[in-house]
Amino acid sequence: MPPQHGPxxxxxxxxxxxxxQLEITNEAEIHALDRALVxxxxxxxxxxxxxxxxxxxxxxxxTDEVESVRVLYFVxxxxxxxxxxxxxx
Length: 89
What we know:
Blueprint: E1 12-14, H1 16-23, H2 27-42, E2 48-49, E3 60-64, E4 69-75, E5 81-88
């Protein structure tokens, strides 16, 4: 019997602005972001939709109250999660 694998995780990519944010964050902030990214990679619908323009991909936000971080992201047609920005709450 072949081994059972869990659900496929989404690939995470960063917009240019989000990548620049990574350059100025400290280790504790990166840990907080990692925790949020794990949740989003397992369930890309975990965040809430942000109302707005419907011509492009739906912008979503995920807030981790424990780590005090909010991630703004959208999901592509191939189910890749693109992080637009993250913010300390």
